């Protein structure tokens, strides 16, 4: 049995005993993603606010500086050795900047409201498949927790979002210029590595 016993005195003077369950402490989550730069990230935040009001949602909006296109998750609580391997994998990916377009508003797991592309952005899909293939041939393969269709999370509302149906919305297009390895913990993001999409394999210093 998990948890621990707790004793106390109620307002009526009676003593009580109860078994308290420990709080869930989530370890840092590690994943690859495309960063969304200014001013597009601010435009996406504005869209999130608009859809939240329009659909009557009350969830947490994604902060402007955390807007990204999710690619591949590597799980929670990874030791530094795994992060180092993920950095080396990122160095193996070569690509040039490309355009993306998102025009579908959809419900996603965990109560996420996301944007997806109806044309599946061929260049984006090609990059995603390339990254997946490199990971499959690396020590990272056992750590992959999800490799889903690339998307942008606008907000999370576990009660309201699952009830909505997918709909077409005004297209949002921009050019992807970099991708990153991100560690997410308690609402904060850190980037152990960022790589520019310039067709070369040089990595920028982490944030």
Automatic annotation (TrEMBL):
Q: GO MF terms on file? A: 2',3'-cyclic-nucleotide 3'-phosphodiesterase activity; ligase activity; RNA 2',3'-cyclic 3'-phosphodiesterase activity
Q: Which UniProt keywords apply?
A: Hydrolase, Ligase
Q: Where are the transmembrane segments?
A: none
> How is this protein named in the record?
2'-5' RNA ligase family protein
Natural source organism: Mesorhizobium neociceri
